Amino acid sequence: MSTLGSSRGGRLLRRFIATTFVVFLHFAPEISSYQRVRNRFFRQWDTFDALALAFDVFFLALLVTGIAELLDRPQWPRMRGAIRAVFVLALVSGVVANIEPFHRPHFLSFELLWLVMAAAVGYSLGRPQSRLVRMAYRASLVFSPWCRS
């Protein structure tokens, strides 16, 4: 993480990498569905489909990073907190989207899971400088394949 620099450009790159990871988490179930034999034959997977999917992840991450940079101003502390809360929500929902047992119709704790997610977002909205927000940001950097050396 320290090799990315501490300048404004380095901070922007770290934000883009974290955002790319979160966007990828939301596309991962679609990508993994092509690994199943049944889906592989029903959906014809082509090289251009893979490039389009990669472009989608890249473009959405670039768009979200740009919007967050435009809105993240020191004179707007509430907006800064809202951006961080939305980031936590996106990360948690991306993780939940990739855990198969949560998608079963008979999962009893599904409502409880949504309450925990709402509590995490509410806490990060109320305390934007909390450890929860910093841990979510660091986790997205650590697990991002772009930060591997």
Question: How does this model look, in words?
Answer:
It contains 6 helices and no strands. The protein is flat and about 55 Å long. The mean pLDDT is 81. It has 149 residues and is mainly α.
Strand and helix map with partners:
Layout: H1 8-33, H2 37-42, H3 47-71, H4 77-97, H5 110-126, H6 131-143
Helix pairs in contact: 1-3, 1-4, 1-6, 4-5, 4-6
Which characteristics define this entry?
6 helices; 72% helix; single chain; mainly alpha; 149 residues
What count of structural domains? Answer: 1
Mean of residue pLDDT? 81
Dominant shape: flat
Order of SSEs: HHHHHH
> Which class of secondary structure composition applies to the elements?
mainly alpha
Q: What portion of the residues fall into strands of 2 or more residues?
A: under 5%
Separation of termini? 10 Å
Q: Say how many strands there are.
A: 0
Helical region count? 6
Radius of gyration: 17 Å
Unreliable stretches covering 5 or more consecutive residues? none
Q: Give the fraction of residues assigned to helices.
A: over 70%
Largest sheet: none
Quick rundown:
With 149 residues, the protein is an all-alpha fold.
